[in-house]
Write a structure and sequence with these properties.
Elements: H1 5-19, E1 42-49, E2 52-59, E3 65-72, E4 77-84, E5 91-96, E6 99-104, E7 106-109, E8 116-123, H2 127-135, E9 137-142, E10 145-150, H3 156-166
Length: about 170
C-alpha cells in the first residue's frame, strides 16, 4: 500500500520527533518557572535551645539571615520572620513545590536594614511547610521578586528535625 505524500511526511516528522533527544527539566521549579538551586555559603541552620527551636536560612553564625522559622516544642505553630522593604505590604508570601500561601503579618522597623521585619504565625502542618519538608526549599515572594531558599545536600535533615520538634 502506498501512502499519500502528506501522510507519509507527517509520519516521518512524528518519527523524527519521537527519536529526538528530550531535554530533562530542572529537578524542581517554582510555580513561577524559576529553577531552585542551593546558593554557596547559604543554607538552612537549626538551633535548639531547651524548648525553643529556630530554623533559619542564611550565612552560618552571622546576622545575614533571609528567613527565620521559630517554634516552641510541640506547639504546632511556627513564627515566620522575613525582611521586607519599607512600605512593604504586611504579608508573607511563601511557596514550596507547587504549594503557595499568603499569610497576614506584622511589620516592624528593622534594626539591621533600611526595611522592615515581617512576622506571621503559621500552623506547623500548613501544606506549604509539608512540601518544604519534602522538597528541601522554601521560597518567598516580595512584590515582583522571588527568593528561593534551598537546602544543600545533607542539610535537609535539619528541616525534618525542626518540624518534628514543633509538632
Amino acid at each position: 500500500m502506498r501512502l499519500p505524500l502528506p501522510l507519509l511526511l507527517s509520519g516521518l516528522a512524528l518519527t523524527a520527533v519521537a527519536c529526538a533527544p528530550v531535554a530533562v527539566p530542572a529537578p524542581t521549579l517554582l510555580a513561577s518557572g524559576y529553577a531552585t538551586a542551593p546558593v554557596a555559603n547559604y543554607d538552612w541552620y537549626l538551633h535548639v535551645d531547651g524548648d525553643d527551636a529556630r530554623l533559619a536560612y542564611g550565612l552560618r553564625d552571622s546576622d545575614d539571615l533571609r528567613l527565620g522559622l521559630d517554634c516552641g516544642r510541640g506547639s504546632g505553630r511556627v513564627a515566620v520572620s522575613a525582611l521586607g522593604e519599607t512600605g512593604a505590604r504586611p504579608e508573607i508570601n511563601l511557596e514550596s513545590g507547587g504549594e503557595a500561601a499568603l499569610y497576614p503579618a506584622t511589620a516592624e522597623a528593622s534594626e539591621l536594614t533600611d526595611g522592615v521585619v515581617l512576622s506571621a504565625s503559621v500552623p506547623a502542618a500548613a501544606p506549604v511547610f509539608r512540601r518544604f519538608q519534602a522538597v528541601g526549599w522554601l521560597a518567598q515572594r516580595q512584590a515582583d521578586d522571588i527568593h528561593a531558599y534551598v537546602a544543600h545536600p545533607g542539610s535537609q535533615a535539619r528541616i525534618t528535625r525542626f518540624f518534628a520538634f514543633c509538632g
